[in-house]
Amino acid sequence: MANGHNKTTSNKKGQSLVEFALVLPLFVLLIVGVFDLGRAFFAYIAISNAAREGTRVVTFWPGKVTLANINTAIQTEIGNSTVVDWSNVTSIEIECGNPFATVTTDAQLKACPSDEPIKITVTYSQDLILSLFFTAPLTLVRSAEMMVP
Q: CA distances (Å), 21 to each of 5, 28, 31, 128, in order?
């Protein structure tokens, strides 16, 4: 070794670079996956709050609330979130009574009996950043149930 250059040290540096190049995509995928999971969890909480807000409106004004009031309350609650997009809400289902009957008109809503539950279910379609691997969006469904006074 006349020039003081050690061949083993040079090979170890090259090996480290190759190992880093192989592991880096996995780390990036893991970080993006965690970010995606966080967004989905945030959306799940937001639609939970929106469903609860919709049922709360019914319990505050029993017999006077309309379907438009409920939808406005849900939309306002979701609109307060920066991550959740109102256009991704695929359905809002309102049911009342025991057994549950689907409510589709204001007259049916006004006819919901007192001391019986009202249930609002919000369905949300979460688009994923990792759509290359998961082509279908994640469907989140959340319900809230309260008693009609």
A: 25, 11, 16, 25
User: Which amino acid would we find at residue 30?
Assistant: L
**DSSP track, 78-102:** HHT-SS--GGGEEEEEEEETTTTEE
d(CA 128, CA 142): 19
- One-letter amino acid identity for 50? A
Q: What percent of the chain has pLDDT over 90?
A: 64
* Confidence category of residue 106, pLDDT binned at 50, 70, 90: very high
- The encoded tokens of residue 130 equal 């990792």
Q: Is the pLDDT at 100 greater than 70, yes or no?
A: yes
Q: How far is CA 3 from CA 7, 8, 130, in A?
A: 11, 14, 50
pTM here? 0.82
Q: Which secondary-structure segment (H or E) carries 18?
A: helix 7-60
